[in-house]
Amino acid sequence: QDGTPKKITYEMLTAARSVASEMDCEVAVVAFGDGLDEEALAQDLGARGAERILVLDSADFAAYNVEPWAAALRQLVEEEEPELVLLGMTPVGRDLAPRLAAKLNAGLASDITGLRVEDGELLITRPMYSGQVIATLRVKSTPVLATVRPNTWAPAQAEGGAAEVETFEADDVPEARTEVLAVEAQGGDRPDLSDAATVISAGRGIKGPENFHLVEELADVLGAAVGTTRAVVDAGWRPYEEQVGQTGKTVSPNLYIAVGVSGALQHLSGMRTSKTIVAINKDPDAPIFRLADYGIVGDLFEVVPAMTEALKEME
How many Cβ atoms from other residues are within 10 Å of residue 281's Cβ? Predict the structure, then answer.
């Protein structure tokens, strides 16, 4: 994004490095853009475990557009013949991965949360049925394509040296049939909901849009993203972009605070892989407490302001 790798890139480096030695493979990063700072990418990504950086630098790749990106990536994959191709389970990855899989006639495992090698075979784990089961998959085609759920692997730390940079010239890139006129960021200074390390979501217990300032104030103290439930979105209290759940976004933060969320299955399917879940609800029998690591039975209009003030005092 704007020539700088997003956090999911560092997480995918950790995932790739966890199996690369057992698969006898090197780790390479593909970088799309226009006017990329190759030296900065070599230092940054090389220090985090990338051995090579394959750069596609062209005006065609200044903004994401699935047709030229998929065509170029298909050519690169056919030339490099990798064993495994990882993409983030982000809006771009969700769009690009199935198109690439179709072009390569390759199998695709989506939204994965685990990689391991057993008896020389790559095994992939991913949640299924709204997170009720964890499936183990073996993709029989080569290469294996997979989209990685954000916040599943820790971001690779800067420990090594620079990577080797190579420019890849795609020779058969189709002209895009759509044009990106502008890209506008939403959410202000808060992190993106899909890959935020901390998420605070409010349900119908917040009672109305006029009370969301309580959640926003707590989110600002913690540097968190704000999420919500389908019922809140359907009521018109918050935008769809903040919906967490089966028909919204899937999140997997280090900390998930559910404020006034009852815990409907639709919502739980979008956040059950969070590392630590804290629930605040006045109903002790709310389903959310069965999933939560920590539960606070109380009135959110008392608990949330008290929590916010206590955290401010700790700063």
Answer: 26
- Contact between 283 and 192 under an 8 Å Cβ cutoff? The reply is no
Q: Which of 34, 45, 43, 35 is nearest to 11 (CA)?
A: 45
CA 18 and chain centroid, separation: 18
Weakest-pLDDT range from 1-5, 59-63, 210-214, 253-257 = 1-5
Contact call for residues 124 and 94 (beta carbons, < 8 A): no
> What is the rounded CA–CA span in Å between residue 196 and residue 132?
23
How many degrees, rounded to 5, is the angle at CA 98 between CA 94 and CA 101?
140
C-alpha span between 61 and 170 (Å, rounded): 11
Q: Calculate what percentage of the chain has a pLDDT beyond 70.
A: 99
> Measured at the alpha carbon of residue 231, what is the angle toward residues 230 and 234, in degrees to the nearest 5?
85
192 pLDDT band (50/70/90 cuts)?
Answer: confident
What's the predicted TM-score (pTM) here?
0.85
Give the mean model confidence (pLDDT) for residues 205-215: 97
